[in-house]
Design brief:
The chain is mostly beta strands. It contains two helices and 26 strands.
Amino acid sequence: RRSTSAPYRAVLSIHALRLVRTQPRSPKMITAGEKQTTSQEENLARRKSFVGEIPFRFEVDANWARLPEGYSWPEVAAVACDSKDRVFVFNRGEHPMMVFDRAGSFLNAWGEGVFARAHGLTIGPDDSVYCTDDLDHTVRKFTADGKLLFTLGMSGQPSFTGATSIDFRTIQHSGPPFYFPTNLALGPNGDLFISDGYGNARIHRFTPDGRLAYSWGEPGSGPGQFRVPHGVAVDRAGTVYVADRENSRIQMFSSDGKFLEEWREIARPCQIEFDPEGNLVVAELGYRAGMWPGTTAPTADESASLTREENSSPGGEVVKPQRPLAISSRRTISASTRAAISM
């Protein structure tokens, strides 16, 4: 969300998170272990709780969204906010794009019959809406009211990578756009960076008008290689961050695909996003949901080895990382420090 007016509000899935001020006001901000001053009945009615640590401490409102009668969202794939504080909910129900005001009141819905499966959502500075449809192998650009502006990719036609299913392990080689694309990020000059995906192992850079400029990446676990590039973000300097999900890391590249560095000790990152202050928010899938058949979580010894490797400089000097602040299962990291991620 681009608005910096207080209080800062972030929306994740179907819950609203309101940032609690670091200087508490009435009612009193509660921390873990403190007793609430309101009655138990009132707390149950509000269904609110607190997550995270100061200065990233949020109040959860599970009743934020008010859907019209007969509407539902069986699975929310992505959420984004525009410059007018409207909240766009990209979901896998009958009404794939639902729009709410910041108070949770329903405004409108669109996209019925358009998408094979909702996956990624990005809103540009001009409030253009970019929707990634993984099963259709396309990325579409819309106006805020749902008018289609252009489509990238051939609807229903994946590129050739040798993949035989959505399982990334069947990929034989990287290919052109798209094979189950996942997400999109906008660069400082308006270029589009698209992560692709379950059936490919590439990042594609497009010009603002939708022309393919450059692609990079291949299957594998080395620098510049991917195992499900699932999320992508671009900072103010133009550095491209890729959530390399099944390699459990974030890789960083120049805008022309040159590998810069990586962050490890992350549990299968799904999506990444910069906030207005330049912090990177990381959504991690962990090692329970969505595990591929035959895969397992890393052992304690493997995790410790990653930690030692990540916290050591090339000269052997141990570097003490800055501890990131947690927002529930999301983690925020200072993009300027490039600190190692740890919890």
